[in-house]
Write a structure and sequence with these properties.
By secondary structure, the protein is of the alpha/beta class. It folds into two domains: 245 residues, Alpha-Beta Barrel (TIM Barrel), CATH 3.20.20.70; 66 residues, Arc Repressor Mutant, subunit A. 38% of the residues lie in helices and 21% in strands. The chain contains 14 helices and 17 strands. A nine-stranded mixed sheet has the order 9-10-8-7-6-5-4-1-11, with helices on both faces. The longest helix has 17 residues.
């Protein structure tokens, strides 16, 4: 067990009312009957890491739809994890993911009183017709209501998720979404292009990606966000100065973190691992006092670990500072990318050119 500070604690809440067409995350739609036992299982898993108590500076509660939990269940959730984190108010950052249809005034106030400092609220697009195509439950009016509840509760750090390249989405739809969202003055915006993954409802329905249209939309959106004072600091993330997501930055800086719950990933003592994706299996193992089954466990060493460091670091617009030995080891890949105009090197800092961030996968492939 590690004995040095761990920066991030991630807690996965896999429950949703329904599965969105594009969603590739592990979720158990329509299984609210499992929530109480799941929280008990989380409490037991958290207790098994009690040696790490006090070593966390950030908390991220994601899903799924964490806001689906009732107020009483939310209180039990915080009781389960605070033995590890200490008072949530003492953390440098604590984020809670929410969907508009399941967030009301009471829950917003409860989250604020529990010490949550940052909310990530799913919007995706402003057009109700597109939201219905995505399989979203909440419409734009629901987003406005939830956003208002968060501001009324005192939240001063809100992220909104947006998507581009959606089936039937036009450039003017994206521009309207940005205009309506920016009127609300969010501190952070995450922008994602539609990706259709195997196992999702969209894949089963034969929905296709539109990479060229999405790239143009992304370029336009980035310019609009920049003009509104939201600087791009990572491939998909824009924020006001000082409002960058500290928890996620720790991922991209190859930092340490502990994940609790179904499918939750951890990076401890150089080892990467992830829990089972089966929520029922997770609950049964935890309640029985057994070890949580793992999807994988691996310890990256040598070149593989250094390559991962570069790929994660290149997600940030600021890039990554490389030591001479790494520059020499990956000189062929770096020189090829420099010649292609995809990256730039200033002193020892390597970064993807801003106008090529959208094709970052072409850069990452050089280090695999």
């Amino acid at each position: 067990m590690t004995t040095f500070p761990v920066r991030g604690l991630y807690v996965h809440i896999p429950f949703c009312r329904s599965k969105c067409g594009y969603c590739d995350f592990v979720s158990a739609a329509g299984r609210e009957d499992l929530i109480d036992d799941y929280i008990k299982a989380l409490s037991l898993e958290a207790a098994s890491f009690r040696a790490l108590s006090g070593n966390f500076s950030t908390l991220y509660i994601g899903g799924g739809t964490p806001s689906l939990l009732s107020p009483a269940q939310l209180e039990k959730l915080f009781a389960a994890i605070t033995p590890l984190t200490g008072p949530v108010t003492n953390l440098a950052e604590s984020t809670f993911e929410a969907n508009p249809e399941s967030l009301d005034d009471r829950k917003a106030a409860l989250l604020k009183s529990a010490g949550i400092s940052r909310i990530s609220l799913g919007l995706q697009t402003w057009q109700d017709g597109l939201l219905k195509k995505l399989g979203r439950i909440a419409m734009s009016a629901d987003f406005l209501k939830a956003y208002g509840a968060l501001r009324a509760a005192g939240f001063a750090n809100i992220n909104a998720d947006l998507m581009c390249g959606l089936p039937g989405q036009r450039m003017k739809d994206l521009e309207e979404s940005l205009a309506r969202l920016l009127e609300l003055e969010p501190e952070h915006v995450s922008l994602y292009a539609l990706e259709v993954h195997k196992g999702t409802p969209f894949h089963a329905a034969g929905v296709k990606e539109a990479p060229e249209e999405a790239a143009e939309m992304y370029k336009t959106a980035a310019a609009i966000l920049k003009s509104a004072g939201l600087a791009r600091y990572e491939i998909s993330n824009f924020s006001l100065s000082g409002r960058e997501a500290a928890h996620n930055l720790n991922y991209w800086e190859q930092g340490e973190y502990l994940g609790l719950g179904t499918a939750a990933a951890s990076h401890l003592d150089g080892e990467r691992r992830a829990n089972t994706t089966d929520t029922t299996v997770f609950i049964e193992a935890a309640l029985a006092g057994s070890a949580i089954p793992q999807q994988y466990r691996e310890t990256l060493k040598g070149r593989a670990k250094r390559a991962e460091k570069i790929m994660l670091g290149l997600r940030k617009t600021a890039g990554i500072e490389l030591h001479d030995d790494i520059i020499i080891e990956f000189s062929i890949a770096i020189n090829r990318l420099l010649a292609a105009g995809l990256v730039e090197m200033k002193d020892r800092t390597l970064s993807i050119r801003e106008d090529h961030l959208y094709v970052s996968n072409a850069v990452f492939r050089e280090f695999v």
